[in-house]
């Protein structure tokens, strides 16, 4: 016989449902409004249902450069992702042992997370201007976004290496493996799923970053800046169609990373199984 659930269960359940509505309600609203009819506007009630505004999105726009901004955000996200993964792994390896100044360096890295993003953007832009360098999305924008993604990647790798069993490395060294061989054949395969997480953090945080790119992108907007600019001069549901497509793109990126992580885990499980059979 099922036990009667306490009242707190239903209260917490209702609160969780409200939280999901608050979290995803705006996204669903934009998705619905993007299917407005030809005479539709930016608000309810909808005037018909069509794909008209998605078609308009791929036509020549009177203002803005949507697809150029998308390409810039994609390239910038990939660059930030690669650098975040590499530097985070190096930092995680370095912090496996205490060294002089490690505590101060640790807090300096985390300080970037508590400094207002707009101030970071302003500071990076001023540095480039004072040095006579061009403020550009691929240089100053790239540097500003790294101040946001690197601390997250570093914290993830710090947690991973704190739980890492060094006995595997010792066993490999006892077999005559070099430092590089130990890292490539032992450490890297074991931390690979975590690297997928760091890469996902790096790309997604860069792809939708607004504040730290606002004053460092120069004359070429990234996609978040372009969307913000469109809100002041675009008065049709084409803006919602763009939001729907970019949301689907983001979910697609997450799905790709999850599939890659699943494939890595299955390969690791297969190798462990084959090794166990060999020993048997």
TrEMBL record:
Pfam families noted in UniProt: BPD_transp_1
Entry membrane topology: Multi-pass membrane protein
Positions of the ABC transmembrane type-1 domain: 70-257
The keyword Transmembrane helix is assigned to this record: yes
InterPro entries in the cross-refs: Bact_Polyamine_Transport, MetI-like, MetI-like_sf
Transmembrane regions listed in the UniProt entry: 7-25, 74-95, 104-128, 140-161, 182-205, 238-264
SUPFAM superfamilies linked to this entry: MetI-like (SSF161098)
Name the UniProt record assigns to this protein: ABC transporter permease
Family from the record: Belongs to the binding-protein-dependent transport system permease family. CysTW subfamily.
Stored PROSITE patterns: ABC_TM1
Species per Swiss-Prot/TrEMBL record: Plastorhodobacter daqingensis
UniProt keywords, alphabetically: Cell membrane, Membrane, Transmembrane, Transmembrane helix, Transport
Locations listed in the record: Cell membrane
Keyword Cell membrane: yes
Taxonomic path: Bacteria, Pseudomonadati, Pseudomonadota, Alphaproteobacteria, Rhodobacterales
